[in-house]
Amino acid sequence: MQCAATLGVRVVLTHLPDDMLGAYSPIEERVYLDLGLTPSERRSVLAHELGHVHYGHTCDLGPDSHIERQADAYAATLLVHPEDYAHLEQISADTHFIAEELDVTPNVIDDFRRYVLRKLGHRTYAGHRPVLV
Hints:
The chain has 133 residues and is of the alpha+beta class. 50% of the residues lie in helices and 17% in strands. The mean pLDDT is 89.
């Protein structure tokens, strides 16, 4: 929640429609999270919505839009530290195992693999992490 304050938004827990886990309202400067989320879902959805805040997204372009990918990548870099991921992957590459250990959803791990990790030859590198001032 400190990241939300740093970005200038308030987090509100509420009942959302069945198809929504979270939402960002730029007009109200609020992030809404569904009350039914588990703790790992809450962290993951909040980080995703903070990605919308960070990038200044002001409208919904649909679930397959570039702004959703930006928010997914932001959440992955915010919640998954590359060294922690590397350590856990040496134990098991199972997505659910790593997600549980890092207290995030499996989608965050998939997004970390998709948007953050880069393979160059036999080496794997992680992109930069967002810095919140």
